[in-house]
Amino acid sequence: MNLTDEQWKLLEPLIAELKCVAGVGRPQAEFRKVFDGILWILRTCAPWKDLPMRYGSKSTVHRWFQHWRRQGMMERMLRRLAEDLR
Questions:
Q1: CA of 20: how far to CAs of 28, 38, 51, 79, 80, in Å?
Q2: Contact in structure between 77 and 35 (CB atoms under 8 Å)
Q3: CA 7, CA 12: separation in Å to the nearest integer?
Q4: How confident is the model at residue 27 (pLDDT cuts 50, 70, 90)?
Q5: Which candidate among 16, 21, 32, 80 keeps its CA 20 to 30 Å from the CA of 7?
Q6: So where are the chain's domains?
């Protein structure tokens, strides 16, 4: 299950913040794919090594997950999606 376009639009204001801190040097990760990959891991409880390549490199997805978790971004993103379900 991936995010719908409507769900992704809910996250766009938060994503704008992410693009400011993405850094330089590497091509920018596709945040929608990364977030969908994180959701896949959380939903399946699979190890990171089993992340399907359609979500990008497991190291990239894991690195963003760790960064967003430390910054509180994961909580804000999941909270925004949960509030929409109400």
A1: 11, 20, 26, 21, 20
A2: yes
A3: 9
A4: low
A5: 21
A6: 5-19+26-85
Task: State residue 22's pLDDT score.
Answer: 53
Query: Which of the pair, 8 or 28, is modelled with greater confidence?
Result: 8
CB hemisphere CA count around 38 (13 angstroms) = 21
8 Å CB contact between 64 and 30: no
CB contact set of 16 (below 8 Å; sequence gap of 6+): none
Q: How far apart are CA 51 and CA 33, in angstroms?
A: 12
At residue 38 the predicted structure's pLDDT band, cuts being 50, 70 and 90, is very high
